[in-house]
Amino acid sequence: MPPNLNPGKRAGDMLQRKMRHVFHTLLLLCAPAAMAAPFEMQFDDVNGQPVGGVVVALRSVDAGRPLARPVHAVMDQISLQFAPHVLVIPVGTPVSFPNTDSVAHQVYSFSPAKRFELELYRGKPYQPVVFDKPGIVTLGCNIHDRMRAYVYVVEAQYYARADHEGRWSVPDVEPGEYTLTIWHPLSRTQAPVLQQRVTIKAEGTQLTLRAPAQMNLRTESKLPANWDVY
Predict the structure, then answer these.
(1) Model pLDDT for residues 188-224, shown as the tens digit of each residue
(2) Where are the domains of the chain?
């Protein structure tokens, strides 16, 4: 019988082909859905001095890219203050408003992105509030006028609040073109203090960004002039 008709050889060849197929299938299953690269940024004012506490959102220009999914977040009330002072969340996130303070509070917002009111309470009597629109939501207390906080609701793939030196890093951003938006909670308007297109390279990207103009921020103790708007 010719060698190429040997039943044993044919069976061995078939087994090798099956093994190669299984191996390639496993490689596909184990491979990451997309490459990821580190992204680091530093935000400075017009004079090159670090600006801490800015809110940063990074959104892909590809409309087909899925946005960040909702999370479960908490805005507490402690020592006549909201905690945290600034909460950054993706659209659709439910936020709980427990009151662990020693006095009752009445939380409200007149902001267009989310209007609501939680009648005077202590403890945790209410269901979470779902923030279903992007925008800046100013929180207040009808009993204690100096209490305020901000919920920044984003439609983006990546988001956070930079540290006190204006630094923010993400270890695993999918390379591509993005719109980067920066806002400061002491800004006098809802407008970003910076918005620009950035490119995340496959090997990673480091950026030092500078405000294009003087930001003219409020002091911590001064309430915003358009309190009920933003």
Answers:
(1) 888 999 999 999 999 999 999 999 999 888 876 555 5
(2) 32-61+158-230, 69-155
Half-sphere exposure of 137 (CA within 13 A, CB side): 26
Instruction: Name residues whose C-beta falls within 8 Å of residue 207's C-beta, 6 or more positions apart in sequence.
Output: 40, 41, 42, 198
Label residue 42 by pLDDT band (50, 70, 90): very high
Fold of 69-155: Immunoglobulin-like (2.60.40)
- What average pLDDT does range 28-49 have in this prediction? 79
Level-2 CATH architecture, domain 32-61+158-230: Sandwich (2.60)
Q: Is the dihedral of CA 59, 60, 64, 70 positive or negative?
A: negative
Q: Do domains 32-61+158-230 and 69-155 have the same CATH topology?
A: yes
Segment 98-149, tens digit of pLDDT: 999 999 999 999 999 999 999 999 999 899 999 999 999 999 999 999 999 9
